[in-house]
Amino acid sequence: MASTRRDYYEVLGVKKGALEKEIRQAYRKLARKYHPDVNPNDKTAESHFKELSEAYEVLSDKDKRAKYDRYGHDWQLAEQAEAARAQRFGSGAFRGQTYADLSELEDLFGGIFGDVLGRSGARGRRARGDAIPGQDIEQPLTITLEEAYAGTSRILSMPTSEGAPRRLEVRIPPGVHEGSRVRVASEGGPAPFGGPKGDLYLVVSVAPHTTFQRVEDDLHVKVPVPLHIAVLGGEVEIPTLKGTKLALRVPPETQNGRKIRLANQGMPHLSGSGSGDLYAEASVVLPTHLNDEERSLFRRLAELRQGIGATK
Q1: Distance from CA of residue 68 to its chain's centroid?
Q2: Lesser CB count within 10 Å: N end or C end of the chain?
Q3: What is the pLDDT of residues 171-191, one digit of tens each?
Protein backbone atom coordinates (compact mmCIF):
# COMPACT_ATOMS: atom_id res chain seq x y z
CA MET A 1 0.00 0.00 0.00
CA ALA A 2 2.10 2.86 -1.30
CA SER A 3 1.71 6.27 0.23
CA THR A 4 2.46 9.71 -1.22
CA ARG A 5 2.85 11.23 2.24
CA ARG A 6 6.32 12.19 3.43
CA ASP A 7 8.07 10.02 5.98
CA TYR A 8 7.35 11.33 9.49
CA TYR A 9 11.03 11.32 10.45
CA GLU A 10 11.80 13.39 7.34
CA VAL A 11 9.00 15.82 8.24
CA LEU A 12 10.58 16.47 11.66
CA GLY A 13 14.12 16.40 10.32
CA VAL A 14 15.35 13.64 12.65
CA LYS A 15 16.86 10.20 12.15
CA LYS A 16 14.76 7.07 12.56
CA GLY A 17 16.55 6.16 15.80
CA ALA A 18 16.09 9.63 17.34
CA LEU A 19 15.44 9.87 21.08
CA GLU A 20 12.09 11.11 22.39
CA LYS A 21 13.77 14.33 23.55
CA GLU A 22 15.20 14.96 20.06
CA ILE A 23 11.78 14.41 18.48
CA ARG A 24 10.12 16.77 20.97
CA GLN A 25 12.76 19.47 20.46
CA ALA A 26 12.57 19.18 16.67
CA TYR A 27 8.79 19.48 16.72
CA ARG A 28 8.74 22.51 19.02
CA LYS A 29 11.33 24.33 16.89
CA LEU A 30 9.44 23.74 13.64
CA ALA A 31 5.99 24.27 15.20
CA ARG A 32 7.01 27.76 16.32
CA LYS A 33 8.23 28.50 12.79
CA TYR A 34 5.09 27.30 10.98
CA HIS A 35 2.37 27.98 13.59
CA PRO A 36 -0.72 29.65 12.04
CA ASP A 37 -0.58 32.42 14.66
CA VAL A 38 2.90 33.33 13.43
CA ASN A 39 1.98 32.97 9.74
CA PRO A 40 -1.58 34.31 9.35
CA ASN A 41 -3.23 33.54 5.98
CA ASP A 42 -0.20 31.51 4.85
CA LYS A 43 -1.60 28.28 3.42
CA THR A 44 1.85 26.76 2.88
CA ALA A 45 2.82 27.31 6.53
CA GLU A 46 -0.57 25.94 7.63
CA SER A 47 -0.01 22.81 5.54
CA HIS A 48 3.49 22.37 7.04
CA PHE A 49 2.09 22.79 10.56
CA LYS A 50 -0.60 20.15 10.00
CA GLU A 51 2.04 17.78 8.61
CA LEU A 52 4.27 18.43 11.64
CA SER A 53 1.38 17.84 14.05
CA GLU A 54 0.49 14.56 12.37
CA ALA A 55 4.10 13.36 12.47
CA TYR A 56 4.59 14.36 16.11
CA GLU A 57 1.28 12.79 17.20
CA VAL A 58 2.60 9.40 16.01
CA LEU A 59 6.33 9.59 16.78
CA SER A 60 5.82 10.98 20.31
CA ASP A 61 3.77 7.92 21.27
CA LYS A 62 5.89 4.82 21.92
CA ASP A 63 3.31 2.27 20.74
CA LYS A 64 2.23 4.24 17.67
CA ARG A 65 5.84 4.86 16.72
CA ALA A 66 6.62 1.13 16.91
CA LYS A 67 3.69 0.37 14.59
CA TYR A 68 4.71 3.17 12.23
CA ASP A 69 8.29 1.88 12.10
CA ARG A 70 6.93 -1.54 11.05
CA TYR A 71 4.01 -0.66 8.79
CA GLY A 72 4.62 2.94 7.72
CA HIS A 73 1.60 5.15 7.11
CA ASP A 74 -0.70 2.09 7.32
CA TRP A 75 0.07 1.61 11.02
CA GLN A 76 -3.55 2.33 11.99
CA LEU A 77 -4.68 -0.60 9.87
CA ALA A 78 -2.46 -2.80 12.03
CA GLU A 79 -3.98 -1.34 15.18
CA GLN A 80 -7.53 -2.01 14.02
CA ALA A 81 -6.61 -5.52 12.94
CA GLU A 82 -5.16 -6.30 16.37
CA ALA A 83 -8.32 -4.98 18.00
CA ALA A 84 -10.41 -7.18 15.71
CA ARG A 85 -8.40 -10.29 16.62
CA ALA A 86 -8.80 -9.53 20.32
CA GLN A 87 -12.54 -8.97 19.81
CA ARG A 88 -12.99 -12.31 18.14
CA PHE A 89 -10.51 -14.58 19.89
CA GLY A 90 -9.84 -12.87 23.24
CA SER A 91 -7.12 -10.46 24.24
CA GLY A 92 -4.68 -13.16 25.34
CA ALA A 93 -4.91 -15.46 22.34
CA PHE A 94 -2.49 -13.56 20.10
CA ARG A 95 -0.63 -11.46 22.64
CA GLY A 96 2.75 -10.36 21.29
CA GLN A 97 1.96 -11.51 17.72
CA THR A 98 2.96 -9.22 14.87
CA TYR A 99 2.24 -9.41 11.16
CA ALA A 100 4.94 -10.10 8.60
CA ASP A 101 3.59 -7.69 5.98
CA LEU A 102 0.52 -5.72 5.05
CA SER A 103 -0.88 -8.54 2.96
CA GLU A 104 -1.54 -10.40 6.23
CA LEU A 105 -3.49 -7.41 7.50
CA GLU A 106 -5.59 -7.36 4.35
CA ASP A 107 -6.26 -11.08 4.72
CA LEU A 108 -7.17 -10.52 8.36
CA PHE A 109 -9.63 -7.75 7.53
CA GLY A 110 -11.15 -9.79 4.75
CA GLY A 111 -11.37 -12.89 6.91
CA ILE A 112 -12.30 -11.69 10.37
CA PHE A 113 -14.36 -8.65 9.46
CA GLY A 114 -16.14 -10.42 6.62
CA ASP A 115 -16.85 -13.42 8.86
CA VAL A 116 -18.18 -11.21 11.65
CA LEU A 117 -20.47 -9.28 9.33
CA GLY A 118 -21.55 -12.44 7.53
CA ARG A 119 -22.69 -14.18 10.69
CA SER A 120 -24.19 -11.40 12.76
CA GLY A 121 -24.01 -8.15 10.79
CA ALA A 122 -22.77 -4.77 11.93
CA ARG A 123 -26.18 -3.97 13.34
CA GLY A 124 -26.13 -6.92 15.70
CA ARG A 125 -22.58 -6.10 16.69
CA ARG A 126 -23.56 -2.59 17.69
CA ALA A 127 -26.59 -3.89 19.54
CA ARG A 128 -24.32 -6.01 21.72
CA GLY A 129 -22.29 -2.91 22.54
CA ASP A 130 -18.98 -4.44 21.41
CA ALA A 131 -18.28 -2.24 18.37
CA ILE A 132 -14.64 -1.27 17.93
CA PRO A 133 -14.21 2.42 18.81
CA GLY A 134 -12.27 4.82 16.61
CA GLN A 135 -8.73 5.91 17.34
CA ASP A 136 -8.03 8.70 19.82
CA ILE A 137 -6.04 11.51 18.21
CA GLU A 138 -3.55 13.86 19.86
CA GLN A 139 -2.84 17.33 18.48
CA PRO A 140 -0.27 19.75 19.98
CA LEU A 141 -1.43 23.21 20.99
CA THR A 142 0.82 26.13 21.98
CA ILE A 143 -0.59 28.91 24.16
CA THR A 144 0.85 31.89 26.03
CA LEU A 145 1.25 32.07 29.79
CA GLU A 146 -1.46 34.76 29.85
CA GLU A 147 -3.84 32.35 28.09
CA ALA A 148 -2.94 29.60 30.55
CA TYR A 149 -3.71 32.03 33.38
CA ALA A 150 -7.08 33.29 32.16
CA GLY A 151 -8.19 30.40 29.97
CA THR A 152 -8.74 30.77 26.25
CA SER A 153 -10.36 29.13 23.25
CA ARG A 154 -9.29 27.87 19.85
CA ILE A 155 -11.22 27.41 16.62
CA LEU A 156 -10.38 24.03 15.09
CA SER A 157 -11.06 23.01 11.52
CA MET A 158 -12.40 19.45 11.67
CA PRO A 159 -12.61 17.24 8.55
CA THR A 160 -15.99 15.77 7.60
CA SER A 161 -17.09 12.93 5.35
CA GLU A 162 -18.63 15.50 2.99
CA GLY A 163 -15.23 17.08 2.40
CA ALA A 164 -15.98 20.60 3.65
CA PRO A 165 -14.26 21.21 7.03
CA ARG A 166 -16.36 21.97 10.11
CA ARG A 167 -15.36 24.72 12.55
CA LEU A 168 -15.29 23.73 16.21
CA GLU A 169 -14.59 26.04 19.16
CA VAL A 170 -12.69 24.39 22.03
CA ARG A 171 -12.37 26.02 25.45
CA ILE A 172 -8.99 25.77 27.22
CA PRO A 173 -9.54 26.04 30.99
CA PRO A 174 -7.51 28.36 33.27
CA GLY A 175 -4.55 26.72 34.98
CA VAL A 176 -3.44 24.36 32.19
CA HIS A 177 0.26 23.60 32.24
CA GLU A 178 2.89 22.05 30.00
CA GLY A 179 1.62 18.64 28.94
CA SER A 180 -2.03 19.16 29.96
CA ARG A 181 -4.45 17.20 27.76
CA VAL A 182 -7.77 18.82 26.86
CA ARG A 183 -10.30 16.20 25.74
CA VAL A 184 -12.74 16.89 22.93
CA ALA A 185 -15.18 13.99 22.95
CA SER A 186 -16.04 12.14 19.74
CA GLU A 187 -13.80 14.26 17.51
CA GLY A 188 -11.16 11.57 16.94
CA GLY A 189 -10.82 8.89 14.29
CA PRO A 190 -13.80 7.10 12.73
CA ALA A 191 -14.63 3.53 13.78
CA PRO A 192 -15.33 0.45 11.69
CA PHE A 193 -18.86 -1.01 11.70
CA GLY A 194 -20.37 2.34 12.68
CA GLY A 195 -18.85 2.24 16.16
CA PRO A 196 -18.26 5.34 18.30
CA LYS A 197 -15.67 7.83 17.11
CA GLY A 198 -12.51 8.26 19.14
CA ASP A 199 -11.67 11.41 21.08
CA LEU A 200 -9.43 14.32 20.21
CA TYR A 201 -6.85 15.36 22.82
CA LEU A 202 -5.18 18.76 22.61
CA VAL A 203 -1.73 18.45 24.22
CA VAL A 204 -0.83 21.85 25.67
CA SER A 205 2.56 23.51 25.39
CA VAL A 206 2.99 26.84 27.24
CA ALA A 207 5.37 29.28 25.56
CA PRO A 208 8.15 30.80 27.72
CA HIS A 209 7.38 34.26 29.15
CA THR A 210 9.73 37.22 29.09
CA THR A 211 8.78 38.46 32.58
CA PHE A 212 7.38 35.60 34.63
CA GLN A 213 8.74 32.17 35.42
CA ARG A 214 6.25 29.47 36.34
CA VAL A 215 7.10 26.77 38.90
CA GLU A 216 4.09 24.45 39.14
CA ASP A 217 1.32 26.96 40.02
CA ASP A 218 3.62 29.59 41.56
CA LEU A 219 4.90 32.57 39.59
CA HIS A 220 8.29 34.25 40.04
CA VAL A 221 9.13 37.76 38.85
CA LYS A 222 12.13 40.06 39.34
CA VAL A 223 11.20 43.54 40.56
CA PRO A 224 13.52 46.57 40.30
CA VAL A 225 13.81 48.26 43.73
CA PRO A 226 15.54 51.67 44.01
CA LEU A 227 18.35 51.73 46.55
CA HIS A 228 16.68 54.22 48.89
CA ILE A 229 13.51 52.07 49.08
CA ALA A 230 15.56 48.92 49.67
CA VAL A 231 17.32 50.71 52.58
CA LEU A 232 14.45 52.66 54.11
CA GLY A 233 11.46 50.56 53.00
CA GLY A 234 8.55 51.67 50.86
CA GLU A 235 6.36 50.52 47.98
CA VAL A 236 7.04 49.53 44.37
CA GLU A 237 4.72 48.30 41.64
CA ILE A 238 4.90 44.82 40.21
CA PRO A 239 3.24 43.50 37.02
CA THR A 240 0.63 40.72 36.89
CA LEU A 241 -0.59 38.40 34.17
CA LYS A 242 -3.93 40.23 34.31
CA GLY A 243 -2.21 43.28 32.81
CA THR A 244 -2.68 45.30 36.00
CA LYS A 245 -0.11 46.21 38.66
CA LEU A 246 0.07 45.42 42.36
CA ALA A 247 1.62 47.53 45.13
CA LEU A 248 4.42 45.61 46.81
CA ARG A 249 5.47 46.62 50.34
CA VAL A 250 9.27 46.44 50.60
CA PRO A 251 10.57 46.08 54.17
CA PRO A 252 13.49 48.28 55.33
CA GLU A 253 17.00 46.91 54.69
CA THR A 254 15.83 44.56 51.93
CA GLN A 255 18.81 42.77 50.43
CA ASN A 256 19.28 42.19 46.71
CA GLY A 257 17.65 38.89 45.70
CA ARG A 258 15.22 38.73 48.62
CA LYS A 259 11.91 37.10 47.65
CA ILE A 260 8.64 38.51 48.94
CA ARG A 261 5.58 36.24 48.77
CA LEU A 262 2.17 37.45 47.67
CA ALA A 263 -0.31 34.71 48.58
CA ASN A 264 -2.85 33.51 46.00
CA GLN A 265 -1.51 35.78 43.23
CA GLY A 266 -0.05 32.97 41.14
CA MET A 267 -1.59 30.64 38.54
CA PRO A 268 -5.10 29.33 39.16
CA HIS A 269 -5.22 25.64 40.07
CA LEU A 270 -6.55 23.52 37.23
CA SER A 271 -8.98 21.96 39.69
CA GLY A 272 -10.75 25.32 39.85
CA SER A 273 -10.08 25.81 43.57
CA GLY A 274 -7.57 28.45 44.67
CA SER A 275 -4.34 29.71 43.14
CA GLY A 276 -0.61 29.47 43.59
CA ASP A 277 1.54 32.29 44.99
CA LEU A 278 3.51 35.10 43.38
CA TYR A 279 7.13 35.56 44.48
CA ALA A 280 8.65 38.99 43.84
CA GLU A 281 12.47 38.94 43.83
CA ALA A 282 14.03 42.28 44.74
CA SER A 283 16.57 43.51 42.22
CA VAL A 284 18.17 46.52 43.91
CA VAL A 285 18.97 49.32 41.48
CA LEU A 286 21.92 51.59 42.32
CA PRO A 287 21.47 55.30 41.56
CA THR A 288 23.39 56.86 38.68
CA HIS A 289 24.17 60.43 37.56
CA LEU A 290 24.60 61.63 41.16
CA ASN A 291 24.83 65.37 41.81
CA ASP A 292 27.28 66.93 44.25
CA GLU A 293 24.85 66.90 47.16
CA GLU A 294 24.02 63.22 46.66
CA ARG A 295 27.70 62.29 46.50
CA SER A 296 28.28 64.23 49.68
CA LEU A 297 25.52 62.33 51.43
CA PHE A 298 27.00 59.00 50.35
CA ARG A 299 30.45 60.09 51.61
CA ARG A 300 28.88 61.02 54.93
CA LEU A 301 27.13 57.65 55.04
CA ALA A 302 30.44 55.89 54.32
CA GLU A 303 32.11 57.80 57.16
CA LEU A 304 29.32 56.87 59.55
CA ARG A 305 29.47 53.21 58.56
CA GLN A 306 33.25 53.18 59.04
CA GLY A 307 32.83 54.75 62.44
CA ILE A 308 30.34 52.12 63.44
CA GLY A 309 32.77 49.43 62.35
CA ALA A 310 35.62 50.98 64.33
CA THR A 311 33.64 50.97 67.57
CA LYS A 312 32.81 47.25 67.38
Answers
A1: 23
A2: C
A3: 999 999 999 999 989 888 877
